[in-house]
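User: My advisor, Dr. K., asked me to get a structural model of this assembly before our group meeting. I'm new to this, so sorry if the format is off. These are the inputs:
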Amino acid sequence: MTSPIRVDQDTDDRITHAARLLGVTKKALVAEAVQAYVAQKAPQLDEGLRHVAELLAPTGIVVSSSTMRSVANLIEQPPEPTPSLRELRDA
Amino acid sequence: MRPLFPQGTIVRNLEAADDRRAFSCGHPDLDRYFRDYAGQHSRRGLSRVQVAVLNGEIVGYAASAPGHITSSELPSDLRRRLPHYPLPILRLARLAVAEEHQHRGIGSLLLATVLQQALGLRDQYGCVGVVIDAKAEAVGYYATFGFQVVPTESGQIQGGAAPTTQMFLPIGTIETALRHDSDK
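Assistant: The format is fine. Below is the predicted structure of the whole assembly, which you can bring to the meeting.
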C-alpha cells in the first residue's frame, strides 16, 4: 500500500528537477534520498530508539536463585534501620 | 538540630502546568527524562512523578512505579518460603536534585516520600520492599540508608551510557525506621 506525501511547491520542483537530471523517477529519487538521510542520522535514530526502550522499561526484575534467597532472608529478617534511614522519619 | 532539608520545601505530584525546562541536575539522562517524558509518564499513569518545590521552583523529582521481583529458577527450599508468583515491590526508577540544591537534604526528603508510599502500597496491595535503580555514583549514597545490591539477570533500567545497579530495602526495615511512636 502506498500513501501520498505532501510537500511544498519548492521541494516538489527540486525533486522534479533533480529526477530529470539524474534520469530517474521522482519516486526512486525520494526513496534513495530517504535511505541516505536515515543512514546519515543513524546515531540520532539509535538514541531515539534507546529512549523509547527506556519508556517501555520493564518494572519487573529477574534475579538468580541465590539472589532470591538473599532477598527472602531480608524480607523474613529485615535488618535494623541505619541511622540515616531513621533520620528520614522526621522528613 | 540542623533541619534535614531547606525549610519550606514541599513534595507534591508533578502537575501539567509545572515548568520542567529549566531543571538541571547535572546528569543529561535524568534531565532529559524529566523534561521530555516525566509529564507523559505521569499523565498516562505509567509512573508516579513527585517533585520537591522550594519557593515555587522545582528543585528535585522522584519517579516510581509498582513492580515485581522474581527468580528465573526457584529452588525447593525457596518454594516453601516464597509464593509461586512474583514478589510485589515499589521501584524507584529515578531520583534527581537540581545542581544548585544538592547536598541540602532534598534527595532524602524525596526518598522519605517514596518510602512512605511503599508503606501505603504494602497496606493496600502488598509490597515486600523498595528497589532502586542506582547510577554507579549513587550506590554509596543509597547504601547509607541500608539498600543492598541485588544483582539482576534482566529488567534493569538503563541509566544512560552505563546500566544502573538495583538495590533493595525490605519493607520491614522501612516500617521500623519510619513508624512514628503514635503508629505503634
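One thing worth pointing out at the meeting: The CA atoms of residues 149 and 167 of chain B lie 4 Å apart.

User: Perfect, thanks a lot.
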